Amino acid sequence: MATERTLRMAKEAAPADGAERAGSCAHCGDPLAGVKVVERRLGGQRRAYCCQGCSFIAEQLYLAQAGDRDRRALDAALPEVRSAPGGPVQWSQCQVDVNGMVCAACGLLIEHRLRRLPGVAQAHVDFAAGRAYVAYDDARVTAERIVRAIEQAGYRTGAAAQPVRARRIELARVLLAWLAMMQVMMLAVPAYVARPGDIAADVEQLLRIAQLVLTVPVMLFSAVPIYRAALSQLRAGSVRALGMDLPIVLGLSAAFAASVWATLTAHGPVYFDSIAMFVALVLASRWWQARALARAHEHVQQARRRAQLAALRLVAWPGSQSYETVDAALLKVGDKVLVPPGETVPADGVVADGASSVSQAWLTGEATPIEKAEGMPVLAGSVNLEQPLVLQVTRAGEATSLATLRRLVDAAGHERPRVVETANRVALVFLWAVLGITVLTIAGWWWVDPAQALPNAIAVLVATCPCALSLAAPAALGATQSLLARHGVLTTRVAALERLAEVDSFAFDKTGTLTGAEPVLERVVPLRAGLDAAAAVGLAARLEALSTHPFARALAQAARRLGVPLPAASQGRAHASAGVEALVEGRRLRLGKPEYALGLVQVDPLPVAARLLQRVEREKLACASVIVLADRDGPLALFAFGEALRPDAAALVQALRRHGEVALLSGDRREPVERVARELGIERVFAHQTPQSKQALVRQWQTEGRRVAMLGDGLNDAPVIAQADVSIALAEGNALAQARADLIALSSRLADVQRAVAGARRGMAIVRQNLGWALVYNVGVIPLAALGYLTPALAAVGMAASSALVVGNALRAARG
Predict the structure, then answer these.
(1) What share of the chain has pLDDT > 70, as a percent?
(2) Which is catalytic among the residues 273, 509, 631, 713?
(3) Is 245 a catalytic residue?
């Protein structure tokens, strides 16, 4: 870069302009003038930083080099999560596999049950994964007690013995319900279209019996999950735990009981068709959602498995280069590991041998490669770019900075704001209102006409059976999931669609999200007469053919794009973390850092460096990553590298600005972050951000009442992705970020993110339409049924028509 040692020497040799030079940040080098300085004491020295982000990264790098003693000292200064009279509480954690959950409401029920246990600090249930995560005080409650509480709520624990068989059974329930529904509705048609007396009594009774025979398997097999969920809600022992399943069960049971009685007495209407249709629709919508969630969860699990780090542990270094491949979690402090080019650093450590450059883009958000030489610290999760490195492990396993980020992600994910589906929010009020109206109907008609008391009460229960209300949200959300899946966007949490439709603040990461992760050649500045930019690119690309550095790939792509032939070269040598040298067309050339390239010059390098610095400042390249091409007579050309915006980034930002505020959060330096923001028209810009500071920013916006969506792809984005109200990760990004994201863009195209936002808003508009119709229908039909103007048969027809209307409207969300 243009700020390397030689250019600094030239700058210091230049005449002073009379102004006193301000101090610089101890990590990034930015001037401290005009900023709120953050001071930290590291290694007995007090150092100044321009922001909390730089101080965090500096602390991590220092701890990676200093070892566990200083880590314990820093951890001792961190605030405790919670204190007790006897001292701080050390929370234990456990995770329990849960089987038998029907929908997301089951997860909320289990969370409610677990949080009532003394000693449980936090409980979070991942419905898609079928797993409960619990933080608890083992002095007050045991893991066995937690498992028993889940089982007492009506669910099974432990890994499912045959998950494939369980999925087949659930599919069989759906298919049986639909098959029975079609047959029962055909048998019910004559009763609806015939005039009184057209059907003989024995034929009518035969139709009733046939419908009963077909409906019994639906109630005994297909409807079991609905009854099991309602029973679990009752077992919870709290009014707040009651949900939509209980009024559904009451309506189904009342309709089935009345139909069975009418069949046994050979008199009165039956509602078997409505029962079969409703069970089929409810199970189909829930199976649809579960299938979409399972697909998204499997993608996340595959990404996590691919992200498992392996380490090449040297067994007899330095006497031997032989190594063994082990899991990174098995490394110990003091181990020596080999990190080949292109591989991920498995643990925090210091370079014991070798020199290279590493990318921390996923870890810190800074796109520029960072040079590492012997004795310098390297963080786990960094990617080695050029030469092999031998590292001595200073922190391994759960003590690494990578593991610290994972714990931060888990904590934020379990604390994220939760919303319940709109239908479930009114379920409790609806349940008690229906029961109260039913009791009043029986009591009122008992005094007026006892013979009409039971039929009118059944009409109330059947008419107000929450078919449309319970289908309003799941059917529309399931259709929206289907639409997004066709466009390559997986939904890992159904509630995220509701939150995405209500978002008013959008936060973006920069590197790898709005820009590509690889640097691109932005400018070529020829410095020698007779040398044009294309020829300079050809010379540079030929030299960089000896290197694996990201700049080498950028130059090769530029040469191919320009169609420049590469000249012959010989005697090529690559110098780690410096540059490359070769004999090209009879003259020796160097390409790389300024001090390395100018080392070939045969004259005094300081005046040459001073002139080069002036040219860099005149070309306004001081903020870019710059390398120099030089021969023995001096510099030939400057090459400036930067990040290229994704082709659809501007369109996405412009579209989202119509829905709310857009902000850019990045761990990179201030200048490249502000440049990207200017090009995209983003006004709120936050540079030098650590994972913690990003998370804190989003948490602050949430306390101000904003609903925040976060889009990122790096490991450093994982905590803020977990904290945001709704989050979107790119599939080509880090697996940990995907594991906590609500939506995953499989193609990593930003245009798909725009479709997801539009699809969620359209889907939630349909949900509101469905809920409005369902509520209007139920409010309007209750007085008609209670006053005797609506017979049970007409109530069943109304219930079926209302449900069909809701489902038909919901299917509009799948178009687009």
Answers:
(1) 71
(2) 509
(3) no
